[in-house]
Amino acid sequence: MPSPILAPPPSLAEGAALFLDFDGTLVELAETPQAIRVSPALDSLLSRLSHRLHGRLAIVSGRAIADLERHLDCSAVAVSGSHGLELRLRDGTELPLAAPAGLAEARREVDRFAASVAGLLAEHKPYGVALHFRRAPERAESARSFMEALAANAGLVVQTGKMVVELRPGGADKGDAVRAFMAEPEFAGARPVFVGDDVTDESAFEAAAGLGGAGILVGPPRATAALWRLDGVAAVAAWLGEEAR
Length: 245
What we know:
Blueprint: E1 16-20, H1 42-52, E2 57-60, H2 65-71, E3 78-81, E4 86-88, E5 94-95, H3 103-116, E6 121-125, E7 128-132, H4 140-154, E8 157-161, E9 164-168, H5 174-182, E10 191-196, H6 202-210, E11 214-218, E12 228-230, H7 233-243
Parallel strand pairs: 1-2, 1-10, 2-3, 10-11, 11-12
Antiparallel strand pairs: 3-4, 4-5, 6-7, 7-9, 8-9
Helix pairs in contact: 1-7, 3-4, 5-6
């Protein structure tokens, strides 16, 4: 896959359905997931974008929806959490899922491991459990090895991201969330554009391209399925501000 160097063209959102990652895209990463700083202007920006796009706006995050709502007003947008395992339309309609077997014991094991290693942090999600090593990057390999072994025993799959390893059920990712939203009347017929920074966003870039749209990578150039690139969170905010006018 090539590395995109071009910024997205002006008025890209015209006639589009816009899908936005959260961490690393709308907010800067922090030492812990709860330590992020959300711009006071973000809620207003999302509301204006939703109005401009006639509701064709969604947040697609690895966070649980309940966690997103602690930081963000999601009332004006569709939202997907837990890497596509949670899906809620703008009118509040939800796609219910059952927590996988083996998850409760896996959470206990991750809690014990995180408590035994300085700098690690466990995070429970409705359909998974994550192990963050942002405060102990030297523990990356041991964290991944532990989670891979646990996944094999628990019947879960491993999802890696920036300074985090997560256990979750198979069968869903951010690309599935994009495809599910695009099948809904509110989104149907639009051109999907997905904005994200992490390797977990690649499936969404691919899904958008497969539906006639494209992805926008946030951050340094790298091999990606995205077509365009923005330098970072500040550049995303500036671009979204222009699109919301």
